[in-house]
Amino acid sequence: MSQITINSLEELESYQGKELGVSEYHTITQEQIKNFADATLDHQWIHLDENRATIETPFRSTIAHGYLTVSLLPYLWGQIVKIGNVKMQVNYEIESLRFNQAVAVNSRVRLRAKMLSVKNLRGIAKTQIEVTLEIENSRKPAYNGIVTFLYHFND
Questions:
Q1: For residue 36, what is the enclosing H or E element?
Q2: Residue 77 and residue 48: Cα distance in Å, rounded?
Q3: What pTM, to 2 d.p., does this model score?
Q4: Quick count: other Cβ atoms within 10 Å of Cβ 33?
Q5: How many CA atoms lie within 13 A of 147 on its CB side?
Q6: pLDDT tens across 135-155, in order?
Q7: What is the rounded (10 degree) CA torsion for 24, 28, 34, 40?
């Protein structure tokens, strides 16, 4: 699916209630997991100790931090929608986020997004987007939830 370009509040409103699309797949590597562990100081062995994770976990490999997968939201969202003509975008809220399944190292994930609502708050667009992080070849997603972005358009 190709990227949607939106340049105004009115264009944003026209997508209300519609699926916006799906990002490209992104592979979660052990190096990315290690870098995330270093950045967040979360060095739990299920993320980093490949030998132990293979033997002692039901995943049979290391797994990505849940918050690592959430941190991919802006990157994957940007593949689905390009918001132009904005002064600023603010990540406002995440609600009802549920982790459904661990993401094993070397899994490929992609984001599916649907525009639930758009509200005009005195010239600022408040958007609620239903997001699902899909894992390639898995019926169960890594997570699903609702994210809210604020867009300050240049008029």
A1: helix 30-40
A2: 27
A3: 0.94
A4: 20
A5: 20
A6: 999 999 999 999 999 999 997
A7: 60
